[in-house]
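Retry 2 of 3 after timeout on previous attempt. Resubmitting structure tokens to design endpoint.
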């Protein structure tokens, strides 16, 4: 398949980022509302389940479901044909493997949405907190299962560090068009990407604890990451700050949906945000 025939992958990318943005908008928004009411931050499944009980929530869930399928397919195409031009050296291969992992994760979110849409499922009873340890327990029962969970932990931590580094070093600017929107909102995009990296990194740590202690209950997803953060010094303030950051990450996803540059199918004369904000 030639690069010129892969332009149709760009709408998939845009739909995927819209769905991804809605997921994080729901998680962050509902978590902040819960904290404001004296509760705790919510995991992805609980947030999606809450949407299922609200007026118009079914429409949003359908958009999220389509978006998750589109994002997963986009990541497969991106990795297979190197549409974002990461290359075939060691760094590029690692980046492209990471695309497949993130595609699989978002396909899993789509699988969470499916019964809510078509199976009559309702709000958050089967959240991440109950399902992830069960899956981890199953893997740990395999020969070398603890090593597999440990390897998964390293991959997840690596992804979290990658997101934080992209935000801290402004690397993400290379993938966005320069225009008034991306320029004006750049500080929020930066903070959002770093916050996302923090949550992903904590999830990886939880998987690492599970592998080290041979205890599947230590593993978890977004909700467990929030719980772990809340147990640290100034934990409630920390969790609130991270949730505010994830609102920024939702904006980051929406901005990517509109203005992300795909090098191998975009024109050569597109000015990047990195070039626009480069010190002179």
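Retry 2 succeeded. Sequence:
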């Amino acid at each position: 398949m030639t690069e010129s025939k892969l332009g149709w992958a760009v709408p998939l990318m845009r739909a995927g980022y819209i769905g991804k943005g809605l997921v994080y908008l729901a998680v962050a928004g509902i978590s902040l509302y819960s904290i404001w009411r004296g509760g705790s931050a919510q995991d992805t499944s609980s947030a999606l389940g809450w949407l299922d009980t609200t007026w118009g929530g079914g429409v949003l869930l359908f958009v999220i479901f389509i978006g998750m399928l589109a994002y997963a397919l986009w990541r497969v195409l991106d990795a297979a044909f190197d549409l974002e031009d990461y290359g075939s050296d060691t760094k590029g291969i690692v980046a492209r493997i990471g695309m497949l992992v993130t595609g699989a994760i978002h396909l899993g979110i789509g699988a969470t949405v499916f019964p809510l849409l078509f199976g009559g499922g309702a709000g958050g009873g089967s959240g991440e907190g109950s399902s992830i340890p069960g899956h981890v327990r199953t893997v740990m029962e395999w020969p070398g299962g603890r090593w597999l969970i440990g390897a998964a932990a390293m991959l997840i931590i690596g992804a979290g560090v990658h997101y934080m580094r992209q935000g801290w070093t402004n690397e993400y600017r290379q993938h966005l068009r320069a225009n008034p929107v991306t320029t004006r909102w750049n500080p929020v995009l930066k903070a959002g990407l770093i916050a996302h990296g923090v949550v992903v990194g904590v999830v990886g740590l939880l998987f690492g604890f599970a592998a080290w202690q041979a205890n599947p209950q230590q593993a978890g997803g977004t909700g467990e990451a929030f719980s772990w953060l809340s147990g640290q010094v100034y934990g409630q303030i920390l969790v609130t700050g991270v949730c505010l950051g994830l609102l920024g990450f939702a904006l980051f996803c929406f901005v990517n949906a509109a203005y992300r540059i795909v090098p191998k199918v975009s024109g050569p004369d597109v000015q990047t945000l990195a070039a626009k904000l480069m010190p002179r």
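Attempt log closed. Confidence is low (pLDDT under 50) at residues 122-130.
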